[in-house]
Write a structure and sequence with these properties.
alpha+beta, Deoxyribonuclease I, Chain A, six-stranded mixed beta sheet, 7 helices, globular, Exodeoxyribonuclease III, metal ion binding
């Protein structure tokens, strides 16, 4: 099973890019972020024509998350992250697909930091960590995928010294991510590529993509019940170079039908180095 996460940065404006990628990559499950579309404007018909069922949590102009399943209809199990009834941002949706529980999330950016937006980010991270602990306790196969808006280590950012005060790289945020992972989650890309610089985001400015001045913001975390099935993980980097592309590229994993009998090896790259 191939599971991907993709911050589309506007699902309607970049629909041709999304549909092309779906046709070429043929992921079984896709988590989308930054739909930037209200509930009624999600392109359900076009995505259905491409062969995918969908559940989504839209929001006018900002945020928005969705889960797609190839040849199936996701069964929605949760909408919105628990812990704050006053938080109306569309940042979390969850569904059951093919024996897996898929959580799709778009964690707040948090800039400028310090400030109210940064405080909101840290609170959201705390709520996510509390909720994730409950998922771990269920001892079921769970994938939590999305744009976490955090670079966990120096390997995940092209020039760490330039990002020390940014909300995506501040010590408080990296510590929050590591507390989450320490519950027992496996960071898929880092598991299979422990020493590589792999990015999922390149800014539109200063030729960031051309210079490979990127960040790894998009992560797929696996619960212990499914981590042993991980056999491949990578980024479809070339999608970032397509016309009218998102500033993110899709990150993906492949899971075996049953736990791998050997240590997972590196995946075959579809992308340029």
């Amino acid at each position: 099973m191939k599971i991907a996460t993709f911050n589309v940065n506007g699902v309607n404006g970049r629909l041709p890019v999304l549909l092309r990628w779906l046709q070429e990559a043929r992921p079984d499950v896709v988590c989308l972020q930054e739909l930037k579309a209200p509930q009624e404007k999600f392109p359900e018909a076009a995505i259905g024509k491409a062969g995918y069922g969908a559940v989504w949590h839209g929001q006018n102009s900002w945020n928005g998350v969705a889960i797609l399943a190839r040849g199936a209809q996701p069964i929605e199990t949760n909408r919105g992250l628990p812990g704050d009834p006053d938080d109306l941002h569309s940042r979390y949706i969850e569904a059951a697909i093919g024996g897996l529980l898929i959580g799709c999330l778009y964690l707040p950016n948090g800039n400028p930091a310090p400030g109210p937006k940064f405080d909101y980010k840290l609170r959201w991270f705390e709520r996510l960590t509390e909720y994730a602990a409950g998922l771990i306790a269920l001892d079921i196969p769970v994938v939590m995928a999305g744009d976490y808006n955090v670079m966990p280590t120096n390997l995940d950012v092209y020039k760490p010294e330039r990002w020390l005060d940014d909300a995506l790289f501040r010590p408080e945020v990296r510590a929050a991510y590591h507390r989450l992972v320490a519950q027992g989650w496996t960071d898929s890309l880092r598991k299979l590529h422990p020493d590589e610089r792999i990015y999922t985001f390149w800014d539109y400015f200063r030729n960031a993509y051309g210079r490979d001045a990127g960040l790894r913001l998009d992560h797929l975390l696996l619960s212990p019940a499914i981590a042993g099935r991980l056999v491949a993980a990578n980024v479809d980097r070339e999608v970032r170079g397509w016309e009218k592309a998102s500033d993110h590229a899709p990150a993906w994993i492949e899971l075996a039908d049953k736990p791998a009998s050997r240590q997972p090896g590196r995946s075959r790259r579809r992308t340029s180095p």
